[in-house]
Amino acid sequence: MTDLDALQAVLGPGARPVRHALTGETGIGLPPFTDHHVHLHLIDAAALTAGGIAGVVDLGGDPDALAGRAAGTPRTAYAGAFLTAPGGYPSGRGWAPDAVVCAVTSASASPGVAGGARTAVDEMADAGASVIKVVLHSGGPALADDVLAAILDAARLRRLPVIAHAEGAGMAQRAVRAGVDVLAHVPFSEHLHGETIAAAVADGMAWISTLAIHAGSPDAAVARTNLERFAAAGGRVLYGTDLGNTQAGPQPMGVSAAELSALQDAGIRGPELVRTLTDGWPGLSVAGLATFVPGTLPDDELALPGLLAASRVVPAEELLDIAR
Ligand SMILES: [Zn+2]
Fold first, then answer.
1. Alpha-carbon distance values, 107 to 83, 145, 170 (Å)
2. Per residue in 6-45, pLDDT tens?
3. Would you say the pTM of this structure is higher than 0.90?
4. For the structural domain made of 33-287, what CATH number should be given?
């Protein structure tokens, strides 16, 4: 086995030994990383590229503010506001100003109807959203089934996927049944039935990890078990931290070793672990960027999260292949 084979066995086919053209450092080159769940209005986004994150998906923010920054770094895709029931989550939360919440009051499929499902989707799509975010939260006012179905129909018309914040008993199951494309968090409120997990995998649903926000809570073990079963059945898992959420304490501005360790605990290892970071997102271009990881492959797989957390984003042309 050559060094390259050994590297790719652990980090996947995109890994290669490199030298940084400007600094002369040697290390590992990887495709650019994406954090698939952040809230930019709550963090200092400029720090993320130094921490190894080339692209982000903002899953709840002011669509007009986000429209202005798509070309900056990190590269940004976004959902815009949370589509929720009047007074429903996250209305009134300190971290969710009015512009971040869009109340949907009817299942109207006609454009231009105030409070209608179609109008809400059009508003986000017209503001440049590449995904529509809906709230399925069992505490407080919730979207009715016909309103949820109308949001999904309207999103299909705009060719946008739908992502759900599912929290509380039955909510993840409801998202799977309705045909939602992505869950913003690995389900953490209850252990899912095997049929629900099998249906999610069969439908090609993706789950965003956000495991580290549950540290110190009983939700952590529930999320780990659900993810273990989903991933073992072939489900698509995306790295995401919910950056801006500080319920488990401050998070690092960049690749999170805690998030990667929690993914490893759920059985997502080696190339599968790296793939959660390098998987793409509709409307998000990280072309021309690359990940530079200083140093060499650790002998202990459990040291991998720490190594990857030392990554930084570089222009792809600054990484030179080291001849073997
Ligand atoms: Zn979030």
1. 12, 9, 21
2. 999 999 999 999 999 999 999 999 999 999 999 999 999 9
3. yes
4. 3.20.20.140
Phi/psi of residue 20, each to 5°?
-75, 125
CA 37 – ligand 1 centroid, Å = 6
CA 58 – ligand 1 centroid, Å: 8
- 2 alpha carbon to ligand 1 midpoint, in Å? 42
Angle at 199 between CA 198 and CA 202, to 5 degrees: 85
Is residue 104 packed enough to be buried (19+ CB in 10 Å), middle (13-18) or exposed (0-12)?
A: buried
Ordered by start, the domain boundaries in the chain are 33-287
User: Model confidence at 72, in pLDDT bands (50, 70, 90)?
Assistant: confident
User: CA gyration radius for the chain?
Assistant: 20
Q: Over 80: is that where the pLDDT of 70 sits? A: no
H or E, element range at 166: strand 162-167
Q: How far, in Å, is the centroid of ligand 1 from the Cα of 241?
A: 8
321 DSSP assignment = E
270-297 burial by CB neighbour count: b if 16+ within 10 A, else e?
Answer: ebebbbbbbbebebbebeebbbbbeeeb
Given a cut of 70, whether residue 212 has pLDDT beyond it is: yes
| C-alpha of residue 38 to centroid of ligand 1, in Å | 6
Distance CA 303, CA 166 (A): 32
Centroid of ligand 1 to alpha carbon of 32 (angstroms): 22
Tokens of 17: 């030994």
Per-residue CA distances from 78 to 47, 167, 284 (Å):
18, 21, 9
Nearest to 241 by CA among 103, 34, 9, 94: 34
Supply the pLDDT for residue 238. 98
Q: How many CA atoms lie within 13 A of 159 on its CB side?
A: 3
Q: What's residue 240's pLDDT?
A: 98
* Cα 36 to ligand 1 centroid, rounded to whole Å: 10
What secondary structure letter does DSSP report for 245?
Answer: -
CA torsion sign for 304, 207, 137, 100 is positive
